[in-house]
Automatic annotation (TrEMBL):
This is YchJ family protein. PANTHER family: ADENYLATE CYCLASE-ASSOCIATED CAP C-TERMINAL DOMAIN-CONTAINING PROTEIN, UPF0225 PROTEIN SCO1677. Residues 32-124 form the YchJ-like middle NTF2-like domain. Signal peptide: none annotated.
Length: 153
C-alpha cells in the first residue's frame, strides 16, 4: 500500500483511504450515492479531474472541469442521504480555502444509478458562503488551533 492509501480518507468516513474512496477511484462501483459523493469530495481533495468527469452523469456532464490548484479542501460533513430506487440525494457541506479566502459549500446533490451499476452525480443546488474566521476562532482547517496560530499566521 502507498502512504496515501494508509492515511485517513479525506471524505471523513474514519477509514483508511485504501479501504474507502481509493477503491472507487480505481473503478469499483459505489454501493450508495453517499459513497459516490464522498469519493467525489476526495477526488476534489486530490485533484482527480478525470474521476470527477467519469462519475458525472453523461446527460449533465460538462465538456471539461478545470480545477484550481490553489483550492485546498478541509472537511466534509454529510447532513442527509436519501435513496428512492435508482435516484438519490445527498446533502452536505464542505470547507475550503482559495488563497487566504475561506468558504463553506453547502449542496444538495442529485444522483442516478446507471445501467452499468455505477452511481453518477447528476447535478446539485449549491450555496457558497464566505467564512470570516476571527483571530481567536478555531481554524476552519480543522486543526483545533486558533486561527491566528494556524492558517491565519
Amino acid at each position: 500500500m502507498s502512504s496515501k492509501a494508509e492515511a485517513l480518507c479525506p471524505c471523513g468516513s474514519g477509514r483508511l483511504y485504501g479501504d474507502c474512496c481509493q477503491r472507487l477511484h480505481q473503478g469499483q462501483p459505489a454501493a450508495t450515492a453517499e459513497a459516490l459523493m464522498r469519493s467525489r469530495y476526495s477526488a476534489f481533495v486530490f485533484g482527480m479531474q478525470e474521476y470527477l468527469l467519469e462519475s458525472w452523469d453523461s446527460r449533465t456532464r460538462p465538456a471539461e472541469l478545470p480545477l484550481d490548484n490553489d483550492t485546498r479542501w478541509f472537511g466534509l460533513t454529510v447532513h442527509d442521504s436519501q435513496q428512492d430506487g435508482d435516484r438519490a440525494t445527498v446533502s452536505f457541506s464542505a470547507r475550503f480555502c482559495e488563497g487566504k479566502d475561506w468558504f463553506c459549500l453547502s449542496e444538495v446533490s442529485a444522483f442516478a444509478l446507471a445501467a452499468d451499476g455505477h452511481w453518477r452525480y447528476v447535478d446539485g443546488k449549491a450555496d457558497f458562503q464566505p467564512l470570516q474566521p476571527g483571530r481567536n476562532d478555531l481554524c476552519p482547517c480543522g486543526s483545533e488551533k486558533k486561527y491566528k496560530k494556524c492558517c491565519g499566521a
